[in-house]
Amino acid sequence: MEPAQWLAEYRDRLERAAYGARQASESLQETGATATSPRGEVTVSVNATGALQDVKLTPMARRLEAEALAALIVSTAREAQRIAAARMAEVMAGYLGDNAALTQITQHLPAEVVR
Fold first, then answer.
1. Distance between CA 23 and CA 76 in Å, rounded?
2. In the sheet that 52-57 helps form, which strands lie side by side, from edge to edge?
3. What is the C-alpha to C-alpha distance for residues 40 and 36, in angstroms, rounded to an integer?
4. What is d(CA 28, CA 83) in angstroms, rounded to the nearest whole number?
5. Are 48 and 31 in contact (CB under 8 A)?
6. Rounded CA separation 54/51 (Å)
7. Burial level of 41, CB count in 10 A (0-12/13-18/19+)?
8. What is the mean pLDDT of the chain?
9. pLDDT, tens digit, for every residue of 15-56?
């Protein structure tokens, strides 16, 4: 193979990798999740990393005892985080494929999230 041809192919691979990385980054920035408690008292939104973004309480939440409401907020937040983690894993699987890098990224996610 000619050196110029090798260099051109190498540049093409680098450009494709950079494009894929940009696409994955954009997809991850848009990834987040919202979950609502089973009876609708609490809605929680998280970003792609699972960080809390918003909590909304309906009038039904006022009927709950403080401890029950706190537990409901936490469990609803965990569900939103699980959904966000599943979406993140899906985006990364599309970018990386099923390989050791994906395993490294997803090893700390809940088992039901990782394929």
1. 30
2. 32-36, 42-47, 52-57
3. 6
4. 13
5. yes
6. 9
7. buried
8. 84
9. 887 887 787 677 666 778 999 999 999 999 999 888 999 999
